[in-house]
Amino acid sequence: MTLLQIYVAPHSVLKKKTTPVEGGVTDDLRKLMDDMLDTMYTYDGIGLAAPQVGVSEQVLVIDINQPKERDLSPEKKRGKPQFFVNPEILWSSEDLRIYNEGCLSVPGQYADVARSDKIRLKYLDYDGKTQEIEADGLLATVLQHEIDHLNGVLFIDHLSNLKRSILMRKLKKFTKENKEDMAKSHVF
Ligand code: NI
Question: What is the mean pLDDT of residues 60-73?
């Protein structure tokens, strides 16, 4: 397994719109998804989008079924990982759901964000097969958060200018204070 570096706001790669994967799901792409998943488990995430590891392509990994125990090794955190290549939202509900979101690219910061409670999604899976699913609850929230990443949007972009600038200031302070930890966690 290879641990990937996680890019933190305001890095420009997080603002860039990604391009769709062409040529289907190859072994190289599966290796990227496996590494992204290990990186996500290592840093206690439940979702990770390719731009967060500096890759400007439409690739996401999500696992919302990880065991609840704390301090598990990354290998033991594997619940039911899901892989999404070129995800496309076909429909989203008008009903909203509010969730207190965080992001590995905005470490230590959290805010309530309202998103559609239910979405219908088309994507390619780990084997390159086209899938269409309906997602609700936490999965719908995480998918919309991750698909935002593919469009260069962070959860803090959903907040008012005032709230966002307060969070960015806190993030700067957090990053400075945790510099050693962050350097340690950014292992390749
Ligand atoms: Ni995120």
Answer: 91
Among 101, 132, 146, 177, the active-site one is 146
Give me the CATH number covering residue 155: 3.90.45.10
Position 104, amino acid? L
Distance 130 CA to ligand 1 centre (A): 24
Cα–Cα distance between 48 and 34 in angstroms, integer?
11
Encoding tokens for residue 56?
Answer: 């400007």
146 carries an active-site annotation = yes
- Residue 104: which domain range? 6-187
**For residue 32, is pLDDT > 80?**
yes
Task: Give residue 10 CA to ligand 1 midpoint distance, Å.
Answer: 13
Determine the length of the chain: 188
pTM confidence score = 0.93
- For residue 105, report the distance from its CA to the centre of ligand 1, in Å: 6
Top-confidence residue, 74 or 36? 36
Residue 40: inside a domain: yes
104 is a domain residue: yes
